[in-house]
Amino acid sequence: MLCCYADPEALVDPESFYPIRPECKEDAPPTRFKPMPGKTLSSRRWHASFSPDGHLDISTVLQRIQRGGVHPKIKGAVWEFLLSCYDPNTTLDQRNELRKSRRLEYEKLKSKCKEMEPSVGSGVVITMPLITEDGRPVEIFRSNNGPESVPETQQPEVVTGDAEGSATESDDPEGVNGEGPSRREKVEPVIESEPVDAAVVQWKLTLHQIGLDVVRTDRSLVYYEDPLNRARLWDLLAIYSWIDRDIGYCQGMSDLCSPISILIENEADAFWCFERLMRRLRGNFKSTATSIGVRSQLMTLSNIIKTVDPKLHEHIENLDGGEYLFAFRMLMVLFRREFSFVDTLYLWELMWSMEYNPNLFTVFESSSGFSADINGQDAGPSDGSTLKKCGRFEKRYLQAGQGGGAHHPPLSIFLVASVLEFKNKRLMQDAKGLDDVVKILNDITGNLDAKKACKEALKIHKKYLNKVKTS
């Protein structure tokens, strides 16, 4: 009988699944996650968790993930359940039918978007405006060999080659221009014979911003050296921004969508997985003329620190940091900048397994509209059967009688709180202004262990609930 350590999956370097470009390795944060035999959810354990007809023992799966994450080979399939794309209490045939109908729905959405803008599904990335704010088309240049980057800043650009940058950096847009054949032919703009729908105009106005972010997203990964992979990410975000009219596209969404696009091979499946993730997070992107949605989470973070560590909160307030804006990025893109790519995947699946509630699938399926979020919706009764299938974080809330789903702060806020507690001593002693706070928090990049951070977040969560209960 082979020892468990002979399992080939346990010996695999997870970074080999998401290789980094050689010239970027020096600047990439170090990866801490390694598959652990007996702890990490392996493909063998995953497949053994299904009954003959396809029902999934989600309790066992959650326990395994919370112990050691998910093996890279099966992350995509597991994430579909963690994000409530599918109900574990269904058969394989039922899920296949649902998958088939969703793929058809996605093709309809993609076809509709392609009718409005032919670049969708064409394998290119638009990085300069297609239309003016009043809906008039901008002239497009194409080479004799197809779409080409155009150096004039007033012209729309189609990127098909290499591009550098980061989705949250303010790089010069001209820096993404590639070289093309010297001969160009001008494509005359299509003159609309009828007034353009305002929603279509608004959607088209965002497409180049999506492109600018896409060519900067996860640029260190070999995966995105392929222009078709960048184009796929652009398609996913462009189509999502069409169906979610209230939010559209906002900077940071490319950072959230990229891992899903990489992990899930089928484009339609990746789209619906991203759509489910946005159900959880879209409230952060809701904005008005004076505020953005994530401020509500920042206010919650402020209240949590005030409750569990009043001295630290007072110190931050004295530095004029009471709004906790220094935590903005961590909450918006779920720690993408604080962890390596591999460790980000590990952190996310730990969080989702701890927040898991089996009733969210029904909540999502029954809600109106493609992208209705979970704010204000109850994730169902906290009976014994539900509790058994919930993650540790969600279970604690249900046992406290505080409701499931969006009726409580997400684990990500407590993760930020754990980071602040981790840096408590330096913040109290060395932070003389907000610039110092930002500098101290920037030092955590590559220096955090995802599992330890989640454990500390759970401790702070427990402390917070106890203090709130007795206050």
Automatic annotation (TrEMBL):
This is Rab-GAP TBC domain-containing protein. PROSITE patterns: TBC_RABGAP. It comes from Rhynchospora breviuscula. Residues 139-189 are annotated as: Disordered. Residues 69-355 form the Rab-GAP TBC domain. One of its GO terms (molecular function) is GTPase activator activity. SUPFAM superfamilies: Ypt/Rab-GAP domain of gyp1p. Pfam families: RabGAP-TBC (PF00566). Residues 142-157 have a biased composition (Polar residues).
